[in-house]
Amino acid sequence: MAKIEESKKILAEIGMPIRQQSDLCSYVLLALLKLDEYESWKNSSNEWIRIHDIIVYLREAYGVIYAENSRETIRKQALHHFRNAALIEDNGKATNSPNYRYRITLETLELLASFGTEFWDKNIEKFEKNHRTLIDIYSSKKKMKMQSVTINGRDFEFSPGKHNELQKAIIEEFAPRFAPGSECIYVGDTTEKDLVKNVEKLRSLGFGITLHDKMPDVVLYSAEKDWIYFIESVTSVGPMEPKRIKEIEEMTNGVNAGKIFVTAFIDFKTFKKFSESLAWETEVWISEMPEHMIHLNGDRFLGPR
Prior knowledge:
Blueprint: H1 3-14, H2 23-33, H3 51-62, H4 71-84, E1 88-90, E2 102-104, H5 106-112, H6 120-145, E3 147-151, E4 154-158, H7 162-178, E5 183-187, E6 196-197, H8 199-204, E7 218-222, E8 227-234, H9 242-251, E9 258-265, H10 268-274, E10 283-286, E11 293-295
Parallel strand pairs: 8-9, 9-10
Antiparallel strand pairs: 1-2, 3-4, 5-6, 5-7, 7-8, 10-11
């Protein structure tokens, strides 16, 4: 039997839904295990691997071509479900981090290494018996890494990672100091793009809400001053540079409230890395020194232009 067919058989016997017994999911499983057509299941590996590595491996080992822009499809159709079923785990980095990786869990590796042997039936029976427990264990592991944050008086949870750690600081440290009494009308999460999105308020302010990926990371609104704070949380990319300001201005050409553009950094070292690309007439806030702000030129400090 070809490896792809054996992989499909395994996914079926483990109890994955029909959609997760597809060619895509079966190939992804083989890539996670680093198994080519001629490798024995007993030689399965569970090294940490990125989606890019999966794409490269399948091209080289099976001649199966997945374009780089299919990474989100691989994540949503295969890896997301494998993770929920506790077949794989991740390394706890933010999903948009270049260091975000997956690997087969040790329990799953042990099971799959026995495929095609006399121990398979016994091992899969044992695996199925403990499977619910495994899912709970890995879900709890993930839960422990989540970051609790209170937004507009309600409790939310950010996924782990430096980007969301900085967003949490923006809401809990920046907003009370420099935007007191403001309401968070938009904030994304690395895994849930629109964690908070007050569409009614955004529309009433004149936003044309179409593409969430063009929204800054955090948007605050002060009704008292009629100011909107557009804040980018920068750990690796995306400061308030002239091009970004232009994009936001175009997206908010129907907004009459005063606009304030802020780039937030986790530390001074990161700020220095991006300092030359920042737009004039914008603000900088650094979470390791939360009581201070840096204003880039101009006759006034914090305020709309």
